[in-house]
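Convert to structure. Protein one:
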Amino acid sequence: MEIDALKGLINTRKGFARSNRFEILVVPPAEAFEDTQEIRDLNILCDTTSLPGRQMQTFETNYTRQQVKVAQSFINEDVSFTFNLTNDMFIKRVFDKWTNMIIDRNTFKKNYDSAYKRDVGIFQNDINNKRIYGVKLINAFPISVQGVELNSSDGEIQKLTVEFTYEDFEELIIRPPED
C-alpha cells in the first residue's frame, strides 16, 4: 500500500523535479558586454548552478534547566555558476570586465555599488521547460572568477566557475503550469 501512496503523491505533485531543467537570467553591467546577444548566450551556456540556501544563526540561552538555541539572524549562501566556454572566450571576458568594474585594477578604487550590482534570476523548470519556481538574487555581483584549467590530455570542454554574493534573495511568485 505504501508504494501506491508514493505513486499517488508523485502524480498529485506533477512528478519529481529534474536538476537539468533550469534557466538563469544574468545581465551584467552594460560596460561588461559588447552586444545583447552575449546576454542570451551567457544564460544558455550555464552548465550548473544551484538555488540559494540560507543558514540560521543562533545563540544559546539558559532557560530553567537547559540551554536552548534561539534564532538571531541568517546567512545567505553564495551561489556558483559554471559556464561552458566557447573558443572566443567571451564569457571569461565578460566576467573579467565585470570584476574589474568592482575595483579598478590600476587605481585600486572601489566603484559605486550601483555600477556593478545586479539582480540575478534562477528558475527551476518542469519537464516541459515551464518555470515552476524561481528566486531573485538581490544586488548580486561576482566575488570569485575561478581559473580556467588547461591541460594537454583530454580535450574536454573548458568551464568557468563564477561565484556570486548578494544582499538577499526572494522567492518569485510563479503560477503552476496548467495541465
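Protein two, convert as well:
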Amino acid sequence: MRREYDYSKLRGRIIEKLGNCKNYATILGISDTALYNKLNNKVPFNQDEILKSISKDVLDIDSSEVCNYFFTQKVGKNQTK
C-alpha cells in the first residue's frame, strides 16, 4: 500500500510566503502540473526539492519542522491517528 501525505500545511505555507503555487513551481524548476502531481500524492517530492523548499529565501521552514510539512500521513475516514 502506497503512503499518502497531507500537504495542507505545505500549501498554506506556499500561499503565505510566495502568494501561489505557480511561483513555488517556478522556484523548484518544475511545471505547475508536476507540482500539482506532487501535492496530490501522484509523484513524491525528492530530497533536493525539499531542501530547496525549506531554505530561508523560499518557504523558511525550520529543519525540525520538515516532517510536519512533507511527511504528515493522511488519515482515512475510518482510521484514527
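The mean pLDDT is 94. The radius of gyration is 13 Å.
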